[in-house]
UniProtKB/TrEMBL annotation:
GO terms for cellular component: cytosol. Pfam families: Citrate_synt (PF00285). InterPro entries: 2-MeCitrate/Citrate_synth_II (IPR011278), Citrate_synth-like_lrg_a-sub (IPR016142), Citrate_synth-like_sm_a-sub (IPR016143), Citrate_synthase (IPR002020), Citrate_synthase_AS (IPR019810), Citrate_synthase_bac-typ (IPR024176), Citrate_synthase_sf (IPR036969). It comes from Gordonia phthalatica. This is Citrate synthase. Residues 1-26 have a biased composition (Low complexity).
Length: 400
């Protein structure tokens, strides 16, 4: 199935009643005048990569339940699964890991581009710029066989941690640390950030967050990547667009906003009053709500458990208490549940990351899902180009 049908797809479950175009004379042709603002409830295409079932609170990658993957698999295994459709056997994992480790280094020209990005800009602007720059270095930029797309995907996956860690360190006035080829993906990244591999509890919690963030069907950033891919553009352009979409606070940027809010609240006993003020002012509470899940995000229990383990390990339970107060009060006042960004915000903070680095951590993981979708879109492409209902002035003449 492709997304180029004239009328909205009616295969969607829970499809909301469409709005209709304001004027039948200026609006679109009969049969095309339904408006699904924000594409809410619209099924645009099929995907074999992941399945979100809000009714049962289930999320699977290629058929595997994500909480199980987060418990039992490394990020390398999950990346392989998303790209190849199957978990790797021992030999495949060994070969995949070797290629990942070999591609971690940032070459000198890329290092100098990174160094020239202003430290005053948001770190998401740095990763966006760096992915765009990597495209300029790739002689096969415009070639899109599945084999080449997989190689480019793996390159971005391998090098993004090096970029994010170098950016984190320079903002702290520290020299970058070169990748450690003896360490796996999660350990190596934490080592490049902090100069040592932290305790096992921290490594496990971080690795789980990477698995949980990796993929989530047609979310806004993945859809942005698919739109760019659908025009026949290159993978770096598509990932650059996806990074731009993820930056927004209604999407990936929420994990940073959550931590800013928790710091503002500061004490658990202030949380309920703070929330009341937000709701009275009709402001969105960051880290709550979801376009698809209406009864809670399937990934939250796993990430909450990781947050809990990190909090108890470090003996710092203040954020956990603020979390509980907000979750409880929000549920009783609105029925709206936390999304994945709610537990990851304080978890990343406790792990020692600076708040503006939180969404780049999301990029490091989601690049696997984005590129799996870019490959899927390329293999079964249809230009993504919806219709609009015109609502401007009637046709008129330019004054003489
Ligand atoms: C990894 C991720 O990207 S997960 C999402 C991260 N984003 C956030 O946490 C930002 C905060 N949340 C939100 O803004 C929203 O819940 C979204 C954008 C994620 C989903 O929104 P939508 O599906 O478009 O639902 P919409 O925003 O229309 O909300 C429906 C109703 O619930 C309310 N609502 C939804 N989320 C929230 C929230 N976080 N705080 C307060 N009210 C909320 C809306 O105000 C709206 O109420 P109304 O019908 O009285 O106007
Ligand atoms: O699915 C969405 O709309 C947002 C989300 O949770 C994600 O991208 O992980």
């Amino acid at each position: 199935m492709t997304g180029n049908t004239a009328a909205p797809n009616t295969a969607a479950t829970n499809t909301p009643a469409p709005k209709t175009a304001a004027s039948s004379t200026t609006g679109p042709k009969a049969g095309t005048d339904a408006i699904y603002k924000g594409l809410a409830g619209v099924v645009v295409d099929t995907t074999a990569i992941s399945k979100v079932v809000p009714e049962t609170n289930t999320l699977t990658y290629r058929g595997y339940p994500v909480p199980e993957l987060a418990e039992k698999c490394s990020m390398e295994q999950v990346a392989y699964l998303l790209w190849h459709g199957e978990l790797p056997n021992d030999l495949q994992l060994e070969q995949f890991s070797q290629r990942e480790r070999a591609a971690r280094r940032l070459d000198r020209s890329a290092q100098s581009v990174l160094a020239r990005t202003p430290e005053t800009c948001h770190p998401m602007d740095v990763v966006r710029t760096m992915i765009s720059y990597l495209g300029t270095e790739d002689p096969d930029e415009d070639l899109s066989t599945t084999e080449l797309l997989l190689a480019k995907s793996q390159r971005m996956f391998a090098v993004l941690p090096t970029i994010v860690a170098a950016d984190l360190r320079r903002r702290r006035g520290l020299e970058p640390i070169a990748p450690h080829h003896g360490l796996g993906y999660a350990e190596n990244f934490l080592y490049m950030c902090f100069g040592e591999v932290p305790d096992e509890v921290i490594v496990r919690a971080f690795a789980k967050s990477m698995v949980l963030y990796a993929e989530h069907s047609f979310n806004a950033s993945t859809f942005a990547a698919r739109v760019v891919t659908s025009t026949g553009s290159d993978i770096y352009s598509a990932v650059t667009a996806a990074i731009g979409a993820l930056k927004g606070p209604l999407h990936g940027g929420a994990n940073e906003a959550v931590m800013h809010d928790m710091i503002e609240i500061d004490r658990p006993e202030r949380a309920r009053g703070w929330l009341e003020e937000k709701l009275t002012a009709k402001e969105k509470v960051m880290g709550f709500g979801h376009r698809v899940y209406k009864r809670g995000d399937s990934r939250v229990p796993t990430m909450y458990q990781a947050l809990r383990e990190v909090s108890e390990h470090l003996g710092e339970t203040k954020w956990l208490k603020i979390y509980a107060e907000l979750e409880d009060e929000m549920a009783s006042r609105t029925g709206i549940r936390p999304n994945l960004d709610f537990p990851t915000g304080p978890a990343y903070y406790l792990m020692g990351f600076d708040i503006p680095m939180f969404t780049p951590l999301f990029v490091m993981s989601r690049v696997t899902g984005w590129t799996a979708h870019i490959i899927e879109q390329t293999e079964s492409n249809a230009l993504i180009r919806p219709l609009s209902a015109y609502s401007g002035p009637q046709q008129r003449s330019v004054p003489a």
